[in-house]
Amino acid sequence: PVKERVPEIRRFDRGEDFQRENNYLFGEGGAGCFSDGKLTCRLSGPDVQWVLDRFVDCGARSSIVYEHRPHLGSNKLPMICRNFRRKIDALGGEFRFECRLEGMDVVDGQIQGVMTSSGYLKTSHVILGIGHSARDTYQMLYELGVPMFRKAFQLGLRIEQPQEQVNQHKYGREEYLSLLGAADYTMITKGKRDLYTFCMCAGGIVMPSVSEPEMFCTNGMSNSRHDTGYANSGVMTTIYPEEFGSDHPLAGVELQRKYEAIAYALGNKNYLCPIQRAGDFLNQKRTDTNFSYAGTYQRGVVASELHQVLPPVVLSQIENGLPVMDQKWRGAFLANAVLVGPEMRGSSPVRIDRERDTYQAPGFRGLYPVGEGAGYAGGIVSAAVDGLLSAKKLVEEFAPPGATTEKLTHH
To answer: H/E element holding 121?
Structure first.
């Protein structure tokens, strides 16, 4: 539960041991519970509106339904996740905490039940919303024969600079800050392989995104007030399946693991965050080990050589794109900027196959892979909409003649 996740995460941030089952990524609400809470997406329509309305029902401010860039805030998400659970409980749902999916019982292509760390559960239908960091579940599904394949995914570094620097460039006048709040930004450099900013956190925090022991990567989040004094953003590009080095369906996961293990070693094997001045990175010069940097990563930082934590094709794009971004800001983007990393979880490196008309995995009747972990979404809203569409497909199986999916799901 959320109330048990918060103190464990605080202990980790203070330097205590990593816990496999209770951390920034695993527990009630998953990684989303401690994410930045951005609700921007490319989708539109009634399903998106329905999702936004449910967030308001569960404690989000009502303005998210019309804001250009709606944002829940990392400090509000735990409460919102808890309220979702309470609503589901009230509707007859049941949550089983500390109950890990370990296998599935399949007979003649039909789901019969699931094996869990708490015992066997008989069921003919499973909605598989595992997120894209449940690597042990990917392995179990692969061994079971669930069809899946490699997919392109996004990775890179994060850049952190003083929020005042961003405000000055974006606003120019001090009085705009009180009207508009901490400034954000979005940039992209076009080319054979685009480089773009991702999940920009104004007044935010660099956080660990760790799902396995002795691995390390970063992410960002920001509270609703955007008041830390620092801005951070992913600086990301796309890596394609033919660049993974293997045609195994889980080759992208192994690529992530390879560089996350290097980052863990650079962080003194203690989940410290490897950092490097942006200028030093571009000049391939190691940042002085006595470099004093406060930053926002709470567990501690260590000056490192970040060229070690990413594949060469990604590094070259960052090296080419960062100076272009800096030119767009007339030299104000990289000044005082520090790079941290790596960021490996921009999206899922795996897609679990499913039939277009039923949303079920081919050869596994009753199995509905959904959301980011299945490779069909790229954020909170798109994952929620994907889950909603899958739920509608499931409801159709049990609908009486003449009933419409809209009436059933809204009821």
So the answer is: strand 119-122
